[in-house]
Design brief:
There is one protein chain. Helices cover 52% and strands 8% of the residues. By secondary structure, it is of the alpha+beta class. It has a four-stranded antiparallel β-sheet with strand order 1-3-2-4. Helix 1 crosses helix 2 and helix 1 packs across helix 4.
């Protein structure tokens, strides 16, 4: 898989965040959360589908594939470790740490993230109390058709 843009990683995180009990997120919830127009989100979802990261449900919902979930959780883990590290080690305020982590999660190397996590010794939750996903997670493949852009 080619390297994803920050916007694509954020979209995967949003799908993960809004996923219901069935693992699918309502597409209409994504645009306001991401601060993008619905057409932009639709185009992004098409690219994520082409990359094998998302599938569309028949009811205007989207679900991550196992690889999409892996990328979303990896990005979330990076964000939460950065947020924890900035708050615990550098005494950055919770809000500023979250904002800075949002920018850095897409750029920091895996080695740096792992070293930050190791230095925190127990980075299981970020300052807001959100669980930090494990580095590796076993995920099931969702059922559904390949996502195509809305017309």
């Amino acid at each position: 898989m080619n390297e994803l843009s920050a916007a694509a990683e954020d979209c995967l995180k949003a799908i993960h965040k809004f996923a219901g009990h069935d693992g699918a997120a309502a597409i209409h919830e994504l645009a306001p959360h991401l601060g993008l127009a619905r057409a932009s989100v639709s185009g992004m979802l098409g690219r994520l589908a082409e990359a094998g990261l998302a599938v569309r449900q028949s009811d205007h919902r989207v679900q991550l594939t196992a690889e999409g979930q892996r990328v979303a959780l990896r990005t979330l883990r990076r964000h939460n470790i950065l947020s924890c590290y900035l708050g615990a080690v550098l005494n950055v305020s919770r809000e500023d740490a979250d904002d800075e982590a949002e920018r850095l999660e897409h750029a920091a190397s895996d080695d740096v993230i792992d070293r930050m996590a190791a230095s925190l010794r127990s980075a299981h939750r970020d300052p807001s109390g959100t669980s930090v996903p494990a580095r590796t997670v076993a995920l099931a493949q969702p059922q559904g058709s390949t996502l195509t852009p809305e017309r």
